[in-house]
TrEMBL record:
One of its GO terms (biological process) is fusion of sperm to egg plasma membrane involved in single fertilization. It comes from the Eukaryota. The gene is spaca6. It comes from Gouania willdenowi. Keywords: Membrane, Signal, Transmembrane, Transmembrane helix. Residues 1-16 form the signal peptide. This is Ig-like domain-containing protein.
Amino acid sequence: MVFVFLLLRLSDHVYEQRLQTAADNFIAAASKLPRVSGCLPPCGFQSSGAEYNCITCQYDSCEFPLDCPVETINVTEGSRSQIRCNETFNISEDVEVIWRFAEEIKTQQVDQFKEVTVGDDRLYSIPSTRLHHQGTYQCELYSAERSIVRLYFYLSVTPRVKVGRSQLQELFDRSLLPRGRFVPEPASAPSSALTLLLLICLTASLLLFLLSLG
Ligand SMILES: *[C@@H]1O[C@H](CO)[C@@H](O)[C@H](O)[C@H]1NC(C)=O
Ligand SMILES: *[C@@H]1O[C@H](CO)[C@@H](O)[C@H](O)[C@H]1NC(C)=O
Ligand SMILES: *[C@@H]1O[C@H](CO)[C@@H](O)[C@H](O)[C@H]1NC(C)=O
């Protein structure tokens, strides 16, 4: 009886020791994993910079928000727009990209956006930008079905008319004399001379016609 009891205690002891060894090995391995230094602000779920938390037995991410600040892009109507979903931290190659658009407004409110494309395209390209393209573009990156980061770009489209008008304004300003007087319009002179020439020509042919009637 005593012998059996001793045997049980012994196996208990062996089991405990094995468990302790396994735990020690695990902690040693976990502590060799990359530390928080890999975190790149200001946004995104960054698992590469995650630290193993020995108390919760989980990887803590860098604890940045998913939403990045809005970046403004200025384009002129009719020109090409290119928006790149370029997160700054390192993520795996295997990502899915969802592009969304909120027409006209500058916003980060998720419910304002409509889905445009789903796929692996990191570049959103508009060959000829129109006024209705103005608004906020959001790209959301997913890795293994998990949302990693959301980038925002506000595309501001300057109308062509406005550009033309500002060029006209420049021309007007340049035509002003230093003392604030206008330069005489040189274009009006040749046109009135041409009118006069035409008039003379017409009168002459009319005269000739009347003469020929005799
Ligand atoms: C875009 O235009 C706005 C106003 O015209 C200006 O304040 C801003 O600096 C411009 N942004 C870039 C990135 O050129
Ligand atoms: C990311 O893409 C945006 C829009 O295409 C561009 O304005 C910005 O310079 C890019 N940033 C980097 C770090 O490449
Ligand atoms: C990103 O990861 C790749 C491989 O996973 C590595 O070769 C590269 O150096 C990393 N870049 C940065 C900036 O950490």
